[in-house]
Design brief:
heterodimer, A: alpha+beta, 6-stranded mixed sheet, 5-stranded mixed sheet, disordered C terminus, B: mainly alpha, globular, disordered N terminus
Chain lengths: 623, 198
């Protein structure tokens, strides 16, 4: 509907060719959405100009709130306010026990081993909680870009295993997003830096977020980002700094080991505030509510905090050492170190990383936004908006994939840091005479003993013809796509018996659960749709008014009779009024009114521009 | 080799898979390299990036399902070829399979007693490394030793292959694999030690 936007021939910019695409950084603490507009990737603010959306969701009987408002409620209503849900993604009930004590929520076991969090708004899964965050970001993007998104690139920690990736993708689906690609966060950061600076060589991306740590070693060459190795810890981040400080405070203040949720949440917030204060001062005062009205006053110095977080930083540096070794790269070959994630604001982290790599790390792009910006650049390419872009990302799987074999051991089929997409096959055989079925257990991890690895899926190959032990030839094929998601199939070569499984990990959602959730969200869909149509029409109205004003300013005098001009102005007034307080349908009709009133004007402008173009041609031909 | 840039499909303006994506090519042909153990690493890297530039699924994000599936297969195939050629032992073994030599992972093993003795000694040294005064330094030294012995075998392999002594070449590949396993073991031990130091 760009009737009034006339561009010079040869400069045609058909708005329908530009697909709206966004990059989303779904973070532990904060989330962001970014998009490429007029060639620049930028994060999109909400109506109040805030870019960061706290990854906090509050549930009550009345409904769901996300972001700043939810965060405000965290201290008052901790049990119904879900923060740091990223840590729970793709985790089973069993995993949560090890995280217990750290997590103040009440869990109930759900279908298929998926843990659910009990809230006043009902039981919810981590995937649903994440979907709420993504939904808010989607709506923000659609409102500010003025249309439906064709797709999104969503970032995940490089160290996320298959279950965590699948859970993230499920959340996006639930939020109504078309996922172009899951992109590793450090790779996204490298895109944001690399494209701007035109770097060539080996770089390291050190990404310490609220709840996850990633290190990636990449080789940049002629627009190709080749990940050589990646490593990290999907349960280590700035939250742990806060916890270490909180524990120190409890000790100093003589607080009891287990206090109530509300006080613990408050204490964690105080600890976080102290950490942030120590980023630019040597010490900070503490005033902590110990019990009832009793208050403990104290002070923590930078040095004390550095001591507390030292073991955590050491853990990250051990992962750096390992990643360098996997990449086959020496420390001094690294030409640049890029810092990502809010926790890299802690001066002691920067200092230790600088010592380790022997160079000052780069911090020139806002560490909170760099991942979203990189994801937006990639989304723009994947949407097909940059057909000549040479940029290419070659990513790896972070953890080895394998099959359980006899005696509870693991046969690795695809080792960690293998470039994806990848397909590998391995042959196995039966161990009993007359065996007609084989149970396959797919695992991810580095250990040789199956129990120490993450269980991804189990399936059975049936219909093997009875043979003596060791005669059957069962070919198991692992295929990992560009998102890092795994597909496994098994085939008995002699009989052709076949079985395959899309690895929906035991901790993901069952299809029926996804269905139920989609049904639930349908009940809200009508209101959502109304609101969305209204926003779309408002954006469209703004565009039409803007284009009309520009056209009138350029050619109104020359091409319009007074009466025609009057009719157009009247239609414009009606649209402005409808835009201000009309519903979607009213605005739409007013837009059509403007288009009808302006038809003749548009035709005349069109003719005029064609004449100009032809005139231009003739001049060229004479030369 | 395919055109530098794939042509454009009329339907979506999205790229199409180069028609001459030929899965019957061997890894060397795919990369445009001579079939030989000596490797021009820079040429391999260049060819790899160029092929992924044409075939990677990200190039087909807006294409139809079938093209996308083909792109995943094509890119996986290029990755496999690259990983095989880049690694000495895998490249050596692959060259022999091109000559029709068969490997059986369950049965094939080295049987040279002196070699096996040397392996046992190296393995023992690895196991004792964590008790050394400077365990990580000791592991580094051992890793260097293992790498040197392996590259000596690589040189012997190249000779045997040139002279078409395939049985000898196969024995050398099996021996190279022993060193690869030792190298991996040394790496794992170092990782474990580093974790314990925390």
């Amino acid at each position: 509907m760009a009737l009034l936007q006339i561009s010079e021939p040869g400069m045609s910019t058909n708005p329908h060719e530009h697909r709206l695409a966004v990059g989303i950084d779904l973070g532990t603490t904060n989330s962001l959405v970014a998009s490429v507009r007029s060639g620049m990737a930028e994060t999109l603010p909400d109506a109040e100009g805030r870019h960061l959306l706290p990854s906090v969701v509050h549930y009550s009987a009345d409904g769901v709130t996300v972001g700043h408002e939810a965060k405000r409620r965290a201290a008052l209503d901790p049990l119904n306010t879900i923060a740091s849900v990223k840590r729970l993604m793709g985790r089973g009930v069993e995993d949560l026990k090890t995280l217990n004590g750290h997590i103040p929520y009440e869990f109930v076991a759900g279908e298929g081993g998926v843990p659910r969090i009990r809230t006043a708004g009902g039981d919810v899964t981590p995937v649903q909680v994440s979907a709420e965050i993504l939904k808010v970001l989607r709506e923000r993007a659609e409102a500010s870009l003025g249309g439906e998104l064709s797709g999104a690139v969503i970032t995940v920690p490089a160290y996320f295993d298959d279950a965590q990736r699948q859970a993230t993708k499920d959340a996006a689906t639930l939020a109504g997003l078309n996922v172009f690609r899951l992109l590793n966060e450090p790779t996204a950061a490298a895109i944001a830096y690399g494209l701007d600076k035109g770097q060539e060589g080996v770089i390291a991306v050190y990404d310490l977020g609220g709840g996850t740590f990633d290190i990636s070693i990449l080789r940049l060459s002629k627009g190709v980002f080749q990940v050589l190795a990646t490593g990290g810890d999907s349960a280590l981040g700035g939250d742990d700094f806060d916890r270490a400080i909180a524990e120190w405070i409890m000790q100093e203040a003589g607080m009891a080991g287990e206090s109530d949720h509300q006080r613990m949440r408050k204490l964690m917030m105080d600890a976080c505030a102290a950490k942030e204060a120590l980023s630019d001062s040597d010490e900070t005062e503490l005033s902590i509510q110990v019990a009832g009205d009793q208050v403990w006053n104290g002070c923590i110095t930078c040095e004390q905090m550095n001591c507390l977080i030292e073991p955590l930083i050491n853990k990250t540096l051990a992962a750096c050492r390992r990643a360098l070794r996997d990449a086959g790269v020496e420390r001094d070959e690294v030409i640049d170190v890029v810092m990502v994630g809010g926790s890299t604001r802690v001066p002691h982290v920067r200092q230790r990383v600088a010592e380790f790599f022997g160079r000052e790390p780069r911090v020139d792009i806002d560490p909170d936004r760099v991942v979203a910006v990189g994801a937006a650049l990639q989304a723009d390419v994947l949407a097909g908006n940059k057909p000549d872009e040479e940029m290419l990302l070659l990513d790896v799987i972070p953890l080895s994939l394998g099959i359980e074999t006899m005696g509870g051991l693991v046969e690795h089929i695809i080792p960690r840091n293998t470039t994806i997409p990848v397909a590998r096959a391995q042959e196995f055989t039966t161990f009993k005479d007359g065996q007609t079925a084989m149970a396959l257990h797919v695992v991810q991890g580095e250990r040789d003993v199956v129990d120490y690895n993450r269980s991804l899926a189990r399936f059975t190959l049936r219909g093997i013809p009875p043979m003596v032990a060791g005669a059957a030839r069962i070919r198991v094929t692992f295929q990992v796509d560009a998102d890092g998601l795994l597909n496994v199939s098994a085939r008995e070569e002699l009989s052709g018996a076949h079985a395959s499984i899309e690895v929906k990990p035991s901790y993901g959602l069952t299809d029926s659960e996804i269905e139920t959730m989609l049904r639930d969200s349908m009940s809200h869909a009508r209101e959502d749709m109304e609101a969305r149509r209204l926003r779309e029409q408002q954006v469209e109205a703004d565009r039409v008014i803007e284009a009309l004003d520009a056209a009138l300013a350029a050619d109104g005098e020359a091409l319009l009779e007074a009466a025609e001009r009057q009719a157009i102005d009247a239609a414009r007034e009606r649209l402005v009024a409808a835009r201000a307080d009309g519903d979607a349908e009213t605005i739409k009709r007013a837009i059509q009114g403007v288009e009808k009133a302006g038809e003749a004007f548009v035709a005349r402008r069109m003719n005029q521009s064609i004449r100009k173009a032809m005139a231009g041609h003739r001049v060229e031909e004479f030369e | 080799m395919a055109a530098a840039r794939a042509s454009t499909s009329e339907a979506h303006g999205a790229p199409v898979i180069p028609v001459n994506l030929d899965f019957s090519q061997n890894h060397f042909e795919l990369m445009g390299l001579p079939v030989s153990f000596a490797l021009d690493r820079a040429a391999l890297e260049d060819a790899y990036r160029r092929l992924q530039g044409q075939l990677h699924p990200d190039r087909f994000a807006q294409s139809g399902d079938q093209e996308r599936r083909l792109a995943v297969q094509g890119a996986a195939w290029v990755n496999e070829a690259y990983a095989t050629l880049k690694d000495d032992t895998r490249r050596a073994r692959y060259l022999l399979t091109l000559k029709g030599v068969e490997f059986n992972d369950e049965r094939d093993t080295a049987s040279d007693p002196a070699f096996l003795m040397e392996q046992m000694e190296l393995r023992e040294a690895l196991e004792e490394a964590p008790e050394a005064a400077d365990p990580l330094g000791r592991l580094d030294a051992l890793s260097g030793d293992i790498a040197a012995r392996r590259s000596a075998l690589s040189a012997q392999f190249a000779e045997a292959l040139d002279a078409d002594r395939v049985d000898e070449a196969k024995t050398l590949v099996l021996k190279m694999r022993f060193y690869d396993k030792l190298r991996d073991e040394a790496r794992r031990t170092a990782e474990r030690l580093e974790d314990e130091l925390l």
